Amino acid sequence: MFLAIENLTKRYPTREGVPVIALDAFSLNVEHREFVSILGPSGCGKSTLMMMVAGLERASSGSIKINNSPVVGPQTELGIVFQEPTLLEWKTVLGNLMIQAEIRGLDRKTYQEKAVDLLERVGLRGFSNRLPHELSGGMQQRTSICRALLHDPPLLLMDEPFGALDAMTRDDLNLELQAIWMNSPKTVLFITHSISEAVLLSDRIIVMSPRPGKIVREINVTLPRPRSLQARETPEFARYTAEIRELFTSLGVMKSDPFK
Predict the structure, then answer these.
(1) Phi and psi (nearest 5°) for 58?
(2) Nearest 10 degrees: CA dihedral of 173, 178, 181, 186?
(3) What sign has the CA pseudo-torsion 225, 230, 236, 239?
(4) Which of these, 61, 160, 197, 226, has the minimum number of CB atoms within 10 Å of its CB?
(5) What is the C-alpha separation between 226 and 208, in angstroms, rounded?
(6) CA angle at residue 66 from 60 to 68, to 5 degrees?
(7) Reduced to 3 states, what is the DSSP secondary structure of residue 69?
(8) Phi-psi group of 55: left, alpha or beta (phi > 0 → left; psi -120 to 50 → alpha; rest → beta)
(9) Are 84 and 164 in contact (CB under 8 A)?
């Protein structure tokens, strides 16, 4: 087991003295090189979960282990991609990637070659000397993904990485992420609100309840890879999305008929 989360609970204090429970007794095991999506409504603790796995936020109770090592502080052997690209505006695209090598004391020549290769793989060849404000939103997020992958982390955490993008760019990046993961498999914990995105990308989908966040169902996605956008039009894909929509409807997250 590569990632083991046991009975994880997160409580936030309030001025009224009654704590808000974001996650409640959350347990999850993720295999090495498995692509797992966390799917749930806003406020169910998805981002909180990711921050605790990264060691950037402390759990109220429970435990997290990565490759059998307890998470007791910030983790350096992983990559994180947030919803916003969080690029340094005064550094070029290549310079933003090379921050990883500089912070980690890695050989500059070796990792600059790797950075250029990553940029080419995501369609940013010729943009290495551009500044972030010269890029589209999708290009900025591609840069952010490359930066997270530069040191080849065994675990990649992605918190709604495509949520702020237009539909066409989001589709493109879904396919690019799948291709990168298939070319260099690693364990991925992917947070999303999109049912179709979760089905397209995942080996397994963890469906969460409204706050306090609990696992209500685990769904193994057995669609063959690579999955094209046309896979969304197949009966098999439709069955997965229908199952999840029906589940959210039963939880009161979605309406069965919005016109009633």
Answers:
(1) -85, 140
(2) 100
(3) positive
(4) 226
(5) 26
(6) 105
(7) strand
(8) left
(9) yes
Token pair listed for 87: 């690029």
Closest-CA residue to 205 (of 39, 28, 6, 14): 39
Rounded to 5°, the CA angle 200-206-212 comes to: 135
Cβ atoms 225, 203 nearer than 8 A: no
Angle between helices 137-149 and 108-121 (to 10 degrees): 140
Q: Which residues partner with 9 through β-bridges?
A: 61
What value does the CA radius of gyration of the chain take, rounded to a whole number of Å? 19
